[in-house]
Structures are given as C-alpha cells and as structure tokens.
C-alpha cells in the first residue's frame, strides 16, 4: 500500500490547559491521530503593530489531507486566540506502518 497523504500541522497555544483541550478534542474526534505538546516555546511575532514575545505550547498534529478541513474548522472553533496559527506541512516520507496508522486512526467510524 502506498503511504496515504499525511500532514504535520503546527499550532501554538497560550497555555497547557488550552493545548490539552485542543489535543484531546482533535484526537477524540478522530481529526488527528496524535498530538504532541511541546511546552516552553518562546514566540516573537508582530501583532497589531507591536513586536511581542510570549511563552506558548506548540502542538505537533498528525492528520491526513482528507481530515484537514474538519480539523481546521474544529481548531478555529476551540482555539482561544483571535488568529490561531495553523500550518500544515506534507509528510513526504516516514515509517510506512506509522503513516498507515495515522490514516487508520483518523478514518470515520
């Protein structure tokens, strides 16, 4: 079987509580197979004309191309930021069995 189209999505959250809420919702609703939370990220960005630096948690979200639109809609619904970061990167290579697992874990029941 050829590897399904897998995406690695990046999303930052302001704190552990919102990161956990998003991770549990996305995995629980089969929109993501796995979400890794990386605490201690410092983000420097321009917002409303000012440069800011804030501590955040980075989510590494594994999903499929087929589930991305639903994942995006749910993330935007739950995320506390006015303008959440959501960047999807295609996974061109990986352990085939793992990529198959991501596909299976995100299929509709």
Concise structural overview:
With about 110 residues, the chain is α+β, with helices and mostly antiparallel strands. Helices cover about 35% and strands about 40% of the residues.
Keywords:
four-stranded antiparallel beta sheet; alpha+beta
Q: What proportion of the residues is helical, as a percent range?
A: 25-40%
Number of helices: 3
Strand content: 35-45%
Characterize the main sheet.
4 strands, antiparallel
Which strand order does the major sheet show? 2-3-1-4
Distance between the termini: 21 Å
> Stretches where pLDDT falls below 50 for ≥5 residues?
none
The count of DSSP E runs of length 2 or more, i.e. the number of strands, is: 4
Mean residue pLDDT: 94
What is the succession of H and E elements? EHEEHEH
- What structural class should be given to the helix and strand makeup? alpha+beta
Overall geometry: elongated
**Rg from C-alpha positions?**
14 Å
Task: Explain what the structure shows.
There is one protein chain. By secondary structure, this protein is an alpha+beta fold. It is 34% helix and 39% strand. It contains three helices and four strands, in the order E-H-E-E-H-E-H. The protein has a four-stranded antiparallel beta sheet with strand order 2-3-1-4. A hairpin with a 2-residue loop joins strand 2 (34-47) and strand 3 (50-64). The longest helix has 14 residues, at 65-78.
């Amino acid at each position: 079987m050829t590897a399904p189209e897998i995406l690695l999505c990046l999303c930052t959250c302001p704190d552990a509580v919102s990161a956990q809420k998003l991770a549990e919702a996305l995995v629980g609703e089969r929109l993501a197979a796995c979400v890794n939370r990386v605490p201690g990220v410092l983000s420097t960005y321009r917002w409303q004309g000012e440069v800011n630096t804030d501590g955040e948690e980075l989510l590494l979200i594994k999903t499929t191309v087929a589930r991305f639109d639903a994942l995006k809609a749910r993330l935007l619904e739950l995320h506390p930021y006015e303008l959440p970061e959501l960047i999807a990167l295609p996974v061109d290579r990986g352990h085939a069995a793992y990529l198959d697992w991501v596909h299976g874990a995100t299929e509709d029941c």
